[in-house]
Amino acid sequence: MHQTIAGVKVASSPERKSVKLDGTSHSYDPRVRAIRADLADVALADLYFAPHYAAPVARNCTAASAMLRGAPDAAASAVSELLHGEAFHMLDARSGWAWGYCGHDHYVGYVPLDALGEPVAPTHVTRGVTPVFAAADIKTPVQQMLPAGARVSGTAEGDFLAVDDGFVHQRHVRAIDDTEHDWVAVAERYLGAPYVWGGRGLGVDCSGLVQMALAACGIAAPRDTDQQTEAIGEALGDNAALRRGDIIFFPGHVGLMVDGERLIHANAHAMAVTIEPLDDVVARLRDTHEQPVTGRRRITT
Fold first, then answer.
1. pLDDT (tens place) for every residue of the chain, 301 residues total
2. Are residues 244 and 200 in the same domain?
3. CA 116 to CA 118: how far, in whole Å?
4. Domain identity same for 152 and 82
5. SS3 82
6. Nearest to 247 by CA among 213, 274, 200
7. Which residues of 190-212 are buried (b: 16+ CB within 10 A; e: fewer)?
8. Helix, strand and coil in the chain, % to nearest 5
9. 190 and 277, same structural domain?
10. Dihedral through CA 84, CA 264, CA 226, CA 180, nearest 10?
11. Of the candidates 99, 117, 135, which is a domain's last residue?
């Protein structure tokens, strides 16, 4: 059986599943394990106890982007951002908010229910900030601006791609199965973008920039800096010379080496994505951190 909540059909009487719980309880990371005091993802039923379980309902982000928040409140802090066309697995929907997790990195949070719609298989990904025109003509009004990394589904019409809300120029997108090879070049397209806590779109934070740059090259990365520290690439020795593409970790911060001396990073010091000498970043942190650099990693694929 199903019921409709704010136009979204969700299971009201999910199939019962018998689960035997025994053994030692385990801690979990609530950022990537969808567990609340009252509800949990049914996929976790064999591992964690909850009063109720729900099977996820697949949805796509239909807004240009939607901030993922830690509570169902527009004033709550953002924890990440869901971009147009990205998948969201909804476990609960009430009072205008959907609770669940992002399809690309399993990050858990709340998004406005009206930012979600039926899943559509994307055909293309935006390379950078992309205007959606009213018609297949660059002189027509711009309907909306999509961030880099947005996913769209459309068909070719000359130099344009016809999508649900209008037309995007084919030079602004790449096929969904095409990947880039230089994640630093991808990150450089964000130069000057504002620093936004939790951002992955028109504004980004440090780990969001790294995640998006790697994603364009077909490399999946977790959302937060501490998660990325152990998950991306291989550790470099302290004496290893740095090169383009190396990932440098600081206390609560991360950036990418542009070359052997300079770092590109989204930072709250400049409140933007900037390139600056690594030595300058280290010098700023030295007064408050005994160990300014906490990790150096390299992707060797």
1. 445 444 445 544 445 555 555 555 568 999 999 999 999 999 999 999 999 999 999 999 999 999 999 999 999 999 999 999 999 999 999 999 999 999 999 999 999 999 999 999 999 999 999 999 999 999 999 999 999 999 999 999 999 999 999 999 999 999 999 999 999 999 999 999 999 999 999 999 999 999 999 999 999 999 999 999 999 999 999 889 999 999 999 999 999 999 999 999 999 999 999 999 999 999 999 999 999 999 999 998 7
2. yes
3. 7
4. no
5. strand
6. 213
7. beebebbbbbbbbbbbbbbbbbb
8. 15, 35, 50
9. yes
10. 50
11. 117
Q: 48 lies in which domain range?
A: 2-117
d(CA 49, CA 37): 10
Q: Which two tokens stand for residue 129?
A: 């900030």
Residue 176: C-alpha distances to residues 62, 109, 123, 235, 278 (Å): 17, 26, 5, 30, 34
Give me the CATH number covering residue 160: 2.30.30
Within 8 A by CB and 6+ apart from 82, the residues are 61, 65, 66, 67, 68, 88, 102, 111, 115
Q: Are residues 95 and 190 in the same domain?
A: no
- The CA distance from 74 to 218, in Å, is 32
Residue with tokens 């399809």: 103
| C-beta of residue 94 within 8 angstroms of C-beta of residue 39 | no
The residue among 49, 52, 85, 90 whose CA lies nearest residue 72 is 90
Contacts of 120 (CB under 8 A, 6+ apart): 60, 85, 153, 164
Q: Are residues 271 and 224 in the same domain?
A: yes
Closest residue by Cα to residue 212 from 279, 138, 131, 273: 273
Dist CA 51 CA 62 (whole Å): 32
User: How, if at all, do strands 53-54 and 40-41 pair?
Assistant: parallel
Q: Do 212 and 205 contact (CB within 8 A), yes or no?
A: no
User: What predicted TM-score, i.e. pTM, was given to this entire model?
Assistant: 0.90
Domain final residue, candidates 73, 91, 117? 117
